[in-house]
Amino acid sequence: MIRILQNLARRWSELSLALQFLVAGGFGLLAVMLVVGAWVTTQIRDGVMRNSAATTALYVDSVIAPLLPDLRKSEELSEAVKQALDETLGQGALGKRLVSFRLWRRDGTVLYAKDAALIGRRFNLTDNLRSAFQGNVTAQFDTFDEDETKEQAVGTPLLEIYNPVREPWSGNVVAVTEFFEVASDFKATLASALLSSWLVVAGTTLTAFLLLSGIVLRASRTIDDQRGALRHQVSELQELVTQNSALRQRVQRASRRATALNERYLRRIGADLHDGPAQLVALAALRMDSPIFSDDGHWTESRSAEVAMIRRTLEDAMREIRGICTGLVLPQIETAAAKEILRLAVDEHERRTGTSVTLTMPKHLPEPGASEKISIYRFVQEGLNNAYRHGRAKDQAVRAGMKNGRLFVEVSDSGPGFDPARVEGLGLAGLRERVESIGGQFQTLTGAQGTRLVISLSVEEQA
Hints:
single chain, alpha+beta, Beta-Lactamase, Heat Shock Protein 90, 2 domains, five-stranded mixed β-sheet, 10 strands, rod-shaped, Sensor_HK_TwoCompSys, protein histidine kinase activity
């Protein structure tokens, strides 16, 4: 049982607010309508019955009262009075309307009745008789006591009325008349009044229910829209959190790889200095210890040749040091435009290698930030170096432009290509990490037809 109730509660909670209101509010308003309708119809029934009974009682009293003697003094009615009552109640409009008539004494004795067998009999007072002897006109519709079988057998709607008979001079109740009136018209009138009241109550309840349903449906629709918008915003926020988490992890990985690459750069620079200029300087120093320089004799041709060789060795060492520094030191690109940076990198490569490079770019390019400018310069520099070393400097080209709101730069050649998984060296790996660390994309496309290196940066125009 508890499980069933839990399932019902769960299913109920899954319904929309509008549907919950339609169900709960509908049953609630239906119950209210039934209670209010029953109360209203009861009041209308009692009011119609009371008014109809008072009207009929007044009419009957106006006809019967003049025929009655002083009932305070008379214990029984005379035969003349009974005959007059028989004639009055047995003919005319009153005779047709009244099916039964009884005149009661306060002790429960029947002083007169249309059924002569009841005259003189004594009965226990009913609640209606007691109320009538207290001065109240009471009535009941189609309700019969045990001794009213003849009236019940008539088969037509009857209105039973108890009317107090008062003394004209004192107003005291001295007797009660009980009569059954044919109530076909009363029944129709009562049914029409009850139907009208039910229609009014039902119409009012339905109108209130429709108005409240409209308000609730509108509020529910607004809540659903806001809930959908909130879910959409939460979904977008979750996506942003996921993206931020992925970007943070990428940045952390890039930072770790950049640290490792920097260490490798330093090792390579140290190796270049050790294997190149340091060896040449060591050779020059070794030649300085030659016996030619320690001889106190005169300057000879051998000493002149040795000095010339030392000079050439030192010049070669200086040239190699300058070459290493040229690859490490950036030109002043912070204040240069994007087009100037591309042209500078291409010109430097052409001057250093003696090869030609095709540069293609639009008339206008956005001005990126300093990090993007450094990345662009290093990318073009390293890409052309790879084209010169691995692509045999064949059809070297640099192309830049905008695509889908992002700045792209492409370095290509028509060389034999290479396997990026095996050949991508320190320079390209460092460039990839540099580009991805600032939110860019790095792409390597290589094959027998040549190689294309492409970076894509999301840049904002700098003021």
